[in-house]
Design goal:
Layout lengths: L1 H13 L3 E5 L29 H6 L1 H14 L11 H11 L3 E6 L5 H5 L4 E3 L2 E8 L5 E3 H10 L14 E5 L8 H13 L2 E5 L10 H8 L5 E6 L6 H4 L2 E4 L2 H20 L1
Parallel strand pairs: 1-2, 1-7, 2-3, 7-8, 8-9
Antiparallel strand pairs: 4-5, 4-6
Bound molecules: nicotinamide-adenine-dinucleotide.
């Protein structure tokens, strides 16, 4: 492992356009379950509940499930705190190593750890958006209205439209700005760090494929508990284990190389 971390640190310290793609696995050490690992959310909730068709059929039903998940502590994003993996990526941005983090997560933890260049590929579950006029409001305001029992299906205070979490549901398009920025960053990148993603959800999983297809291909460093679905096709350096522990070790190795350059 030490050798592989040293190789990855060499790549990052020399990179001109390193970026990261993160998934649910980077936040499991903050107490938020991922989807597909043992004990993950799909063992408790039917993934179809997160489809836009099901939501539109009965928004009130979705919001009841949302409150149940929050109450049970199964998916309480507001109480979660960033972990050493989020902080390591924020520090890499501060060191001008990482240009941005493209995250599939909807938990706001990269921003709370101090990353400023964050592309929310799947939106943000701490916000709610009106489906008609796109007005945004904190999701806790919607939750409060539901808990008070004043509304069964939350409605926009401005236009009366149906309110939905501002996260991308199955069957919905990726927000156009997030898609455009990630395409530009992927085309430019020379090192791509993939952290905590099974790379089974498209189009996010297309990012490492695109990075490897361009010329010259970017080097892909993957940090995961279990190898991703695409590791044979895209991964140059595979670091298996805890994202928090490995990213902190990688950060220290990168900092050592930067310090050596200054001598
Ligand atoms: P996934 O559940 O499909 O895969 C998670 C990956 O992370 C697995 O490969 C697993 O081995 C790895 N992993 C788990 N814990 C880890 C740890 N501590 N250290 C290193 N690796 C770890 O997740 P995905 O690929 O992101 O796809 C799931 C979708 O679900 C995403 O689109 C995301 O939007 C959404 N989601 C988000 C959150 C969140 O915002 N925190 C949580 C669950 C799901």
């Amino acid at each position: 492992m030490e050798d592989l971390i040293a190789k990855a640190a060499d790549l990052l310290a020399r990179a001109r356009n390193a970026i990261a793609l993160t998934g649910a696995g980077i936040s499991t050490e903050s107490g938020i379950p991922d989807f597909r690992s043992p004990g993950g959310l799909w063992e408790r909730v039917d993934p179809a509940e997160f489809s836009i068709d099901r939501f539109l059929q009965n928004p009130g039903r979705f919001w009841r499930i949302h409150l149940d998940m929050k109450r049970s502590g199964d998916f309480d994003l507001a109480s979660a705190k960033p972990n050493p993996a989020h902080f390591a990526l924020a520090r890499m941005e501060e060191l001008e190593i990482l240009k941005c983090v493209i995250t599939q997560n909807v938990d706001n933890l990269h921003q709370r750890a101090g990353s400023t260049e964050v592309v929310e590929f799947h939106g943000n579950l701490l916000r709610a958006a009106c489906m008609k006029c796109r007005s945004l409001e904190p999701i806790e305001d919607v939750e409060e209205r539901l808990l008070q029992g004043t509304e069964e299906t939350p409605r926009c205070k401005k236009c009366g439209g149906v309110v939905k979490p501002d996260a991308v549901f199955f069957g919905e398009a990726i927000p156009s700005k997030a898609m455009a920025v990630s395409q530009v960053q992927t085309q430019r990148c020379d090192v791509l760090l993939v952290v905590g993603s099974s790379l089974q959800v498209f189009p996010a999983a297309q990012i490492p494929i695109t990075a490897k297809m361009k010329s010259p291909a970017a080097k892909v460093v993957e940090i995961n508990r279990d190898p991703s679905a695409l590791h044979r096709e895209v991964t140059d350096i595979l670091l298996l284990g805890s994202a928090g522990e490995i990213l902190q070790r990688l950060l220290r190795a990168v900092e050592d190389r930067i310090a050596d350059r200054m001598l």
